[in-house]
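--- STAGE predict ---
source: upstream dedup step, 1 unique chain passed
mode: sequence only
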Amino acid sequence: MEVAVVKTIGELIRDTRRSLDITLTQLSELSGIPKGTISRIENGDVKRPEFQTVHPLAAALKISFETLIDYYVEVEKRSEHLMRIYQATVRQCSDVELIRKAATKYLESSNEDSLDLTEKLYRTIDSVEDTSIQLSLLNLIIDYARAHGIMPFIAKGMYQRYLVERNDFSKLKETYYSGKYVLHYIDFLPQNDRIELHYKLGIHAYNLRLYGESIDHCKRVITKDNGESPYKVNALGILRDAHFSIGEYKEAELYSIQYKQFNHPHTRENIVLMDALFNAKKGNVEQAIEQLLAFLETCSEVSSIPATRQLLQLYLKQNDLKSAKDQLETSKINPSVLDKSNPLICSRYADYLQVKGECYLALEDYEKCIAHMVDGASYYSKVNDTVKEKECLNTVMRIHLEHNVSPQPTFEKLSTYYIKSAKEMEG
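--- STAGE serialize ---
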């Protein structure tokens, strides 16, 4: 049997309507499109019917959206109409390939300049919520820009792709290096984007504990930013923390002095925390403890996490297990307040859990130690910090080798941990 070939949209509407035994009048009532307009479309009097007109007809006749789009991307040539078709596809469809097909057809429009086409498509991507669709469209723009020698949109496309991909914590290392690759095209980015790129790479490197690279990126931020933008302020804070992390305390204090000049809401709490760390490093441990205890009475819940961690570390250093135990019993940190979309906060919470585990180990409460070490490993895995994750799990194993601990509860915790980790990797 020969398969009938639909040659026009009018034939598709007419044949579908007749097969459903629907009259022109009924279709007009169902779709809200005038009967005369439908008749002209079916008879071919309208050679290229508007998508906005045909769409409600197709919906009323239950013609699939995909079928309609497939037709239009083959016959439509006008850029303004193809843009509307593409936008309708983004709104109503989750099929990445179909959306990419509509976008590709738009870029092939011959009645507009390739630079204008690329810019208009690029502007639409911020409103797309689905990450896979965003990445597909950005890759399309990058490939199209390369083929047409449009350097600014190679740079912009790659930069935006990096910003999207860096939200996948399981690939923090890979996305960091893809972000560094954008630096080859940085001269084609606007000045604000150049500053933002170096800042994002700076904090990204810090999260990966690549402190030297973090310092290099953040120095570029403060060199290029002549104002008092949040990027500059935060870059000074990262420079201070990165230098401190590698034992360069003199440099850390110099950046701390600059950081203190900015009276932003979040800087005040960070200043207190770092001052306590400086005092501890200088041997003023009691003063550092007093600062942290006073700070915990008034600080935000987010800041209480690193503050409590620092305090517990100081108690462990002094072997003041009584104070450590008191702090563990009175500390009420709610993990539900965490911004789990922020890898730095996830990493700090993991550090806090690990130190709690170390305290319970010193107190010989092995079950609580194991519970916190497993939780810590889970949060380290979220940010792909495999070194610290293994540290926590190795501590759990060591406890079982060195102490008489019932294995069953630990096996249950580890089993839950591995199942959860596997699901997160799949998802």
